[in-house]
Design goal:
Elements (H helix, E strand, L loop, with lengths): L1 E7 L4 E7 L4 E9 L7 E6 L5 E4 L5 H12 L15 E6 L10 E2 L2 H8 L9 H14 L5 E5 L9 H4 L5 H7 L8 H14 L8 E7 L3 E7 L2 E5 L21 H10 L3 H10 L2 H5 L7 H9 L3 H25 L4 E5 H6 L1 H9 L10 H4 L6 E2 L8 E4 L4 H13 L1
Parallel strand pairs: 1-6, 6-8, 9-12, 12-14
Antiparallel strand pairs: 1-2, 2-3, 3-4, 4-5, 7-8, 9-10, 10-11, 13-14
Helix pairs in contact: 1-3, 7-8, 10-11, 11-13
This protein binds adenosine monophosphate (AMP).
Adenosine monophosphate binds next to helix 10 and helix 12.
Length: 398
């Protein structure tokens, strides 16, 4: 079975065509600048060079049309016709309290996703456009929605409620939802497999450290707490997002700068995190690590502040689960940035674990960083959200 995995942003569309039998990625690519000048599709068939084609794409339906064109192209394509695409798996950011697992997309499901738009106004409408475009161009191909929030629906009330009047939860569903669920689910499962154990017998903390970043406590297979909240702004310090801060800062800054709360939130989303902490140097951890090594004090402080926050979350989840067996690092920074991992692991020594600096130099591979005799296992588990989406899609379609 060939599954097309689609991840739609407001002006972008990422895709992968995965053969579920062999779990091989047949091709992947990205449509950029949809609806704006200079739109282009970058397509990469497995084992071949990337090809970038600049083509006008007025909307996401155009983008999906080009994706199908590339996938079936006689030269760079990987299938003969649309008939060979058996299912589509869509990444959906917010499923609210309506979805605690992936579902086959029906008209009712589309309506329910629309009802969650309020909770993710930047993401869900774009995800829905992706669904509708595929529906238009491949009306007979079954589709599945896989939600970033679904894995966290097992959190207990004490973890998801905020300390604000309960009526706001009742009236507006303001609560912690958490994101990156597909990744936390995949990585915790894989971490248990690597240890030759069942996830149902373990306490695992997953640190998904990418441009967006979150930590999750997975207790006996269930997410019991996670650092992102109502939106993906809460929790860790990220590339450009502030993470946790005193909510009073919003009105204080709005007052000082003569801006609205929305404008301050925009600063917290786009100009903060390590980008803001490094005085605008970069949101990219490669740049920051190089600058820190070269003696840039702000870059150094940004990385230290970042790692300290990660370590604090790990500490609080050890308490939440009353213990921990595995701490897993994943995503761009978690998989590749030895500097950040080393800084975080320094805080973990009291747990009776430490990482081997030689193993920590390995990048982007499944590797156990701690000693076999350590009480807590530290490891790197590269995430694969697309594969997890494809697996769920196949499971539901079959
Ligand atoms: P993601 O959102 O998961 O793609 O992660 C993006 C972040 O991962 C960026 O801050 C990158 O600097 C970081 N990253 C990706 N590859 C590397 C690498 N080889 N070395 C260090 N950091 C990396």
């Amino acid at each position: 079975m060939n599954v097309l995995v689609i991840n739609c942003g407001s002006s972008s569309l990422k895709y992968q065509l995965i053969s579920s039998d062999t779990e091989e990625v047949l091709a992947k690519g990205l449509c950029e600048r949809i609806g704006i000048d200079g739109s282009a599709i970058t397509h990469q068939p497995e084992g071949k060079e990337k090809v970038k084609t600049e083509v006008p794409m007025a909307n996401h339906t155009d983008a999906v049309k080009y994706v199908i064109e590339k996938l079936t192209d006689p030269e760079v394509g990987v299938v003969k016709s649309l008939e060979e695409i058996d299912a589509v798996g869509h990444r959906i950011v917010h499923g609210g309290e309506k979805f605690n697992s992936s579902v086959v997309i029906t008209d009712e499901v589309i309506k329910a996703i629309e009802e969650c738009n309020d909770l993710a106004p930047l993401h869900n409408p774009a995800n829905l456009i992706g669904i509708n475009s595929c529906k238009e161009l491949m009306p007979n191909v079954p589709m599945v929605a896989v939600f970033d929030t679904a894995f966290h629906q097992t959190m207990p009330e004490k973890a998801y409620l905020y300390g604000i009047p309960y009526k706001y939860y009742e009236n507006y569903k303001i609560r912690r939802y958490g994101f990156h669920g597909t990744s936390h689910d995949y990585v915790s499962n894989r971490a248990a497999e690597i240890m030759g154990k069942s996830r149902d017998d373990l306490k695992i903390i997953v640190c998904h450290l990418g441009n967006g970043a979150s930590v999750t406590a997975v207790d006996h297979g269930k997410s019991v707490d996670t650092s992102m909240g109502l939106t993906p702004l809460e929790g860790l310090i990220m590339g450009t997002r502030s993470g946790d801060m005193d909510p009073a800062i919003i009105s204080f800054l709005a007052d000082k700068l003569g801006k609205t709360a929305d404008q301050i939130i925009n600063i917290c989303n786009k100009e903060s995190g390590v980008l803001g902490l490094s005085n605008g140097l970069s949101s990219d951890f490669r740049d920051l690590s190089i600058a820190a090594e070269g003696g840039d004090e702000r870059a150094k402080a940004a990385l230290e502040t970042y790692s300290y926050r990660v370590a604090k979350y790990i500490g609080s989840y050890v308490m939440a689960m009353k213990g921990v067996d595995i701490i897993a690092f994943t995503a761009g920074i978690g998989e590749n940035n030895a500097f950040v991992r080393a800084q975080v692991c320094e805080y973990l020594e009291w747990l009776g674990t430490s990482m081997d600096p030689e193993k920590n130099a390995i990048r982007g591979e499944e590797v156990i960083l701690s000693k076999t005799t350590d009480k807590v296992t530290i490891m790197i588990v590269p995430t694969d959200e697309e594969m997890a989406i494809a697996r769920d899609t196949v499971r539901l379609i079959k």
